[in-house]
Design goal:
This is FxsA family protein. There is one protein chain. Helix content is 63%, strand content 0%. It is mainly alpha-helical and 144 residues long. The protein has a domain of 84 residues. It is elongated, with a radius of gyration of 23 Å.
Amino acid sequence: MPRILGLILILPVLELLAFVGVASAIGLGKAVLLQLAISLIGVAMISSLLTEAKTRVRGGGVMSFALDKSHSMRGLAGLLFAVPGFLTDALGVLALVPEFRTRLRRLLGGQPVTARTPGRRAAPADLIELDRREWREAPPGGEA
């Protein structure tokens, strides 16, 4: 936790240094316009994700902000783009690259952990294990 707090406190200083570096390279006006354009792209990305979620809910689906494969990283990239600063923009670009997406997802969400009972092998991911009370045997032919 102290590391995260330290990073949050030092981020504005690093962003300011990055902005000064970019502004000295391309000019102050261009740097401000570039930062404004990237922030608007981030807001548009977040808006697009929210529109998709609303459409899913209207169609009878469930609105979820879980760490799924594409939406969470697109949302993170949009959020990083919307926050002013060139360093957060660079992290946002990395969140859009597929190889970095998987690494970042592992870092943020961890690996899925399966419960293991001693003496039993782990079930494949597409296999649903049921307790004896949760199923019944059906006769051949499909009639129950």
